[in-house]
Amino acid sequence: MGIKSGADMNDYGRQIELLLVKRNISKAAFADKIGITVQQLHAILRGKSMSTVTTLETMAEILKVPTDVLLQDIDKRFLLYAIDDYLNLIDRSRAQKSLEYFLSILEEEKKDE
Q1: CB 3.0–4.6 Å: which of 25, 26, 48, 60 could bond 67 by disulfide?
Q2: How far apart are CA 70 and CA 65, in angstroms?
Q3: What is the pLDDT of residues 35-53, one digit of tens each?
Q4: CA 64, 53, 79, 13 torsion: positive or negative?
């Protein structure tokens, strides 16, 4: 399981758009805050262009979410590692058990494909 192909990159844009609505941030204001043009933002949201890591981190910071939340629809592992990070802050042994469990589920899915 790797990063999905271009059609699914729109999920990344939809995730960002959903968070913009929830945070009541306009696309123009968001583009300005992250230092890109509105046209560049639209290209990112439509899956026509990829953001840089720096832009991704800035977007996540402005939207007040971990970068994994923005990437979760591209590859399931992003969300798993985000969960692991959160659990690690609470209880390391629980985090390790949960991560191993989730990874075993992904391996089972991989075998079924």
Answers
A1: 60
A2: 8
A3: 999 999 999 888 888 788 8
A4: positive
Give me the pLDDT at residue 76, please. 66
Cβ neighbors of 15 (< 8 A, separation 6 or more) are 69, 70, 72, 73
Contact 98, 85 (CB under 8 A): no
Which DSSP symbol is given to 51?
Answer: P
Q: How many CB atoms lie within 10 A of CB 51?
A: 20
Q: What's the pTM value of the predicted model, to 2 decimals?
A: 0.59
Question: What is the rounded CA–CA span in Å between residue 23 and residue 3?
Answer: 27
In CATH terms, the superfamily for domain 6-68 is lambda repressor-like DNA-binding domains (1.10.260.40)
Q: How far apart are the first and last CA of the chain?
A: 10
